[in-house]
Fold this sequence. Notes:
Layout (H helix, E strand, L loop, with lengths): L9 H8 L4 E7 L5 E7 L4 H10 L9 E4 L1
Antiparallel strand pairs: 1-2, 2-3
Amino acid sequence: LRESGIRHHWATLRTHLSGQVRVTTSMVNDKGQVIHIRHTSEPEPVHVKIYNALGLPVRPLRRLTTIE
């Protein structure tokens, strides 16, 4: 991270990264089935900078849909 110009303490990095979350949306369709959709929120510029410095994807998890 330092090589990329990011010189924050770990506590600060964790605070910044806590803004990107995983969200679940649930609904019932016309057949009475419960549909759950999980997706990751849009990364803010600070997230993108940290992820790029670490060589990580800005959207680490794909969208997941389940039907019960």
